[in-house]
Design a protein that fits this description.
By secondary structure, this protein is an all-beta fold. 1% of the residues lie in helices and 44% in strands.
């Protein structure tokens, strides 16, 4: 965790042009002062910029006498350097901070100082100013059955009772073809559309939408939504299919969500977590279910490994809004898929049950209902403790049970404070509630950080790491917010270096993502899949860089390994055949030719010309090793005009797969000179061997 920083020393950048102390002119703060709005649980940031005519050796401090218990906070206020004469004041308010605070910012050059006041009004994140809530889409994802449809539309609906408008947008990863249309922020709705290419289908079967709703009042709610591409798999493939072991859920009388536990074993191991498909509307076909009629829920791994693991999902209770004694039926099935064929679709998919569906009945209880304790995840006020204990949306858009304090505002448990205003629960009842100080219910999982903590922020104080192979690293959730603490690592390269950054983990135990930043804080590259492991390969000029490991998952306790592989002077270099970068400068070849030690660098294309007779069958083979997504090369054939692509993207079986090596077969429709193009997919780089055979 971060340490308390009351004083920040900003060292001079140009020693030769600066004195160690001021010779007369006092410093002046030129920006940052004035009135500001902050919100409980949200980091407030303001840049303080100062000038001094005769020194840049400035010291920034702050005084905040009316912000209580500074030293005892997990996230105390602090100043962070932002250049030779600037700093950021960072402050994450807690519930007891609601109100107005004056913070004095002081800058000194050693002999004189300047002082300004930040007037910060802290607003509650609940009650009269709640977070936006995603009403649609339901669940954690959806399925695009590629045997029936080639495109998908997802309807997005947001509710925010105190706001007149909400901006809905996407955060990375934003894949090619993603389109989100919100006609107006006043609509509170949007449509996401996407038609995945054959190339994208061949690369992975899981894609994410990172949805964000922003009410323009300091509140952002995020929702991760997974799109599962359900491909048509081959039959009679080698290897063994996954085996699912599950005891069917029994009928029950409850208002709690329904757990569905099961286990999966596989000879090679499953790469993506299994999925439970459920519905409360009777499917059109009970013996051969259509996945598009079901809500998919990605399972969490509760134990074991990818070859023998235990999993579970929670199905939302379907009788919350019914009356006592009424019932609802739930139909469901479980699906797991392996990745035995890394270069194709000869994988195995197992459904449980093998035919038909599981089902069970849930009944709304009669008599006295004992609700859940505070900070238990909930769907409805009915699931919470006492009569006026409400189910409330807190920071991040998740809903939790709270405890009523309308009649006894001073009686809230330790770590909580009675809300200043009434809060509206899911049933429409409004009462004052005991809110966690942090604005969130925090993490319920015990997690012990690794030896690199506190590395939660990008900082020049982080140790410089070279080539690294480290196991047993941990990503833990912040005990206050429940969100994962980021892990940051610093790397310094002295010359142009080919750099591979890799994290290895089991996605079923929690998803991790990877990003690479420059020393100025600009993101250079990212790896944001929803399967096991992430990797980035980049050619980096001399300088300092930062690697960030982070997660969108709540209550995370994830172990991972990290590899840094830094190869000096190993970056992509033009090959001996350059410049064959277009069809006019194509390298002539003939049958039997094979050329090695060639390269495709970022933005580069290699072209070859070959004379063919009508009916000739040309085989082009391309050999290369693809270890990361940034090394993918593709083959194309162009007509005799050099501009008409006769093999457009994307045929994974004819030149444009997402894995190592490519083969392309082409029959010439007429006699003439044809052109073969080698190109990196999305600016990929790699070395390769190319060969040509004509029959």
């Amino acid at each position: 965790m971060r340490k308390l920083l009351f004083v920040l020393f900003i060292l001079p950048l140009l020693w030769a042009c600066d004195d160690s102390s001021s010779s007369g002119e006092p410093p002046h703060i030129i920006s940052g002062a004035g009135a500001h709005q902050a919100y409980v649980g949200m980091e407030f940031s303001v840049q303080i910029v100062a000038t001094d005519a005769d020194t840049s050796n400035l010291t920034f401090t702050f005084e905040a006498p009316d912000i209580l218990n500074l030293e005892g906070r997990t996230h105390p206020p602090q100043l962070v350097a932002a250049g030779p004469q600037a700093a950021y004041f960072l402050f994450t308010p807690i519930a007891s901070d609601v109100g107005t605070h004056n913070v004095d910012i002081i800058v000194s050059d050693g002999s004189s100082e300047d002082r300004v006041v930040l007037n910060i009004t802290v607003n509650a994140s609940t009650g009269t100013n709640p977070y936006p809530v995603f009403i649609e889409p339901l669940g954690s994802g959806t399925t695009l059955d590629l045997t029936k449809d080639v495109c998908i539309d997802v309807e997005i609906l947001v509710e925010d009772t105190d706001s007149s408008s909400v901006d809905i947008f996407l955060e990375d990863p934003i894949h090619d073809g993603y389109a989100l249309n919100q006609d107006s922020p006043q609509d509170f709705e949007a449509i996401f559309s996407w038609c995945p290419t054959a190339k994208q289908i061949s690369e992975t079967d899981r894609y994410t939408l990172n949805l964000v709703a922003d009410d323009r009042e300091g509140h952002q709610t995020r929702k991760r939504y997974v799109i599962i591409l359900r491909r048509d798999l081959e039959t009679d493939c080698p290897g063994e299919a996954p085996v699912i072991t599950h005891t069917e859920v029994t009928d029950r009388e409850t208002l709690e969500n329904i757990p569905v536990p099961f286990s999966v074993t596989d000879d090679v191991g499953i790469e993506s977590p299994p999925v439970v498909y459920y519905t409360t509307t009777q499917p059109s076909n009970l013996t051969d279910p259509d996945p598009s009629e079901f809500v998919p829920v990605t399972a969490s791994q509760t134990g074991g490994t990818s070859t023998s693991g235990t999993y579970s999902v929670q199905i939302p209770n379907p009788v919350i809004d019914l009356t006592a004694g009424q019932s609802a039926m739930v139909w469901y099935f479980i699906e797991a898929e392996d990745n035995d064929d890394a270069t194709g679709s000869c994988d195995h998919r197992t459904m449980s049950p093998v035919t038909g569906l599981y089902s069970f009945i849930v009944t709304h209880p009669t008599g006295t209902i004992v609700g859940a304790d505070p900070c238990t995840a909930c769907q409805s006020d009915l699931q919470c403790g006492g009569e006026y204990d409400l189910c409330v949306y807190l920071m991040g858009g998740s809903s939790y049970c709270l405890q009523d304090c309308q009649a006894n505002p001073d009686g809230c448990p330790a770590g909580t404070v009675c809300s200043q205003d009434p809060i509206t629960g899911t049933s429409g009842v409004s009462r004052r509630q005991c809110i966690p100080e942090s604005g969130s219910c925090g993490s319920t999982v015990s997690c012990v950080d690794d030896a690199y903590e506190d590395n939660d922020f990008m900082s020049t104080s982080l140790p410089v790491l070279g080539n690294l192979s480290e196991t047993g690293l941990k990503m833990c959730a912040d005990p206050d917010s429940g969100w994962a603490d980021e892990d940051w690592y610093r790397v310094s390269v002295g010359t142009t270096t080919l750099s591979l950054f890799e994290i290895l983990f089991q996605h079923g135990s929690g998803d991790l993502d990877l990003e690479l930043y420059s020393s100025a804080g600009s993101m250079i590259a990212s790896s944001l899949t929803v399967t096991n492991n992430e990797s980035i390969m980049e050619c980096l000029p001399a300088g300092d860089y930062y690697v960030s490991v982070y997660s969108w998952d709540l209550n995370l306790n994830q172990t991972y390994a990290m590899n840094f592989d830094l190869l000096e002077n190993g970056c992509c270099a033009p090959d001996i055949l350059e410049s064959n970068d277009d069809w006019q400068n194509a390298m002539p070849v003939m049958t039997g030719d094979a050329v090695d030690d060639l390269s495709i660098c970022e933005g580069d294309e290699d072209w070859y010309s070959i004379d063919l007779n009508a009916g000739d069958l040309m085989m082009v083979y391309l050999f290369f090793d693809q270890l990361t997504m940034d090394q993918d090369l593709d083959l194309y054939v162009y007509d005799t005009d050099g501009t008409t692509n006769l093999t457009p993207c994307c045929d994974p079986n004819n030149g444009q797969s997402g894995t190592s090596d490519e083969e392309l077969l082409f029959e010439a429709p007429a006699t003439g000179t044809y052109y073969v193009q080698v190109v990196g997919y999305e600016n990929s780089e790699n070395t390769y061997l190319i060969g040509f055979e004509v029959e």
